[in-house]
Amino acid sequence: MQAKTLTHPIIAAMQKRHFVLLDVLPLLGSIAAAGVLSRVGLTFGAWVGFVVMWYASVIGIELGYHRYFSHGAFETGPAGRAALAILGAMGGQGPVVTWASTHRHHHNHSDTPEDSHSPHRRDGRPGVSLRSFLHSQLTWKWSYPYPNPSLYTPHLVRDRLIATLSRYYYLWVVLGIVLPGVMTAAIDRAWGGLVTGMLFGGVVRLYLGQQVTFLVNSLCHIVGFRPFDSKDHSRNVAWLVPLTLGGSLHNSHHAFPSTANNGLLWWQLDPGYWLLWSLARVGAVSALRTIPPGVVERRRRGHRPAGPDIETRNS
After folding, report:
1. What residue spans define the domains of the chain?
2. Quick one: what percent of the chain has pLDDT higher than 70?
3. Model pTM?
4. Which residue, among 275, 226, 288, has the nearest Cα to 253 in the 3D structure?
5. Residue 215: which of 272, 137, 270 has the closest Cα?
6. CB atoms within 10 A of CB 154
């Protein structure tokens, strides 16, 4: 049997390097950027660069890293896979194989002592402490048992395109900082916009985007609504939906991990699925996996299951 997690000094060193470069430095950079931007101000171009790069990286993380690479919720061709992998890398949360392996491991051990980023105490006591919340939000990334990609994501390990793109992971991160600067300078028609855009749409966007995504790990396992039975503490947090493109409908996701649509109940909005549906109409993606309404109702809390959960594939 293959080991579930891997430990090696090189892996540990890479985790610490990534934590310093893409968790600590973006925080320090954002603090410095706040001082600069408070003096020079934010132009229209800077805001456009920020918003465009925010949702570009969220599309890469939520629709790409999460729904596609981790759960196979839809299908797309080589160009689509490459675009999603690059946009996800611009979010600065690790190469796609590492992200997907860690996420699948999380689903297998959600809110147990083996879960790398559960906000619930590991000492056997009930509830959440400040330390366990901070661990879930950020500090777990400093050092954690590395989920074995050969076990959790063998399809990605064998994917030559993903392997090639992953070698340039840090290049994509830097590109995600430079692009909003170029965008800002072009919109404002001023070279000064290059620096403003890189600081606001690049560094600040990178840091805030990470923290909002990490709230799905932490906050969405503490507060919110639980319309579906699951074996963990996952919850739906509606006010985070616009910022995460539906990723904060976390209890819905844990109830049906491989669906392309987290908006399972009529009042739940999933902008990420709306985008996937639109892309399917023009042939950019296909085979969107959805859940039949009857199956959704059987998994509602308080309802007894009346049959197996069967997922369907719709183009």
Report:
1. 5-223
2. 94
3. 0.92
4. 226
5. 137
6. 13
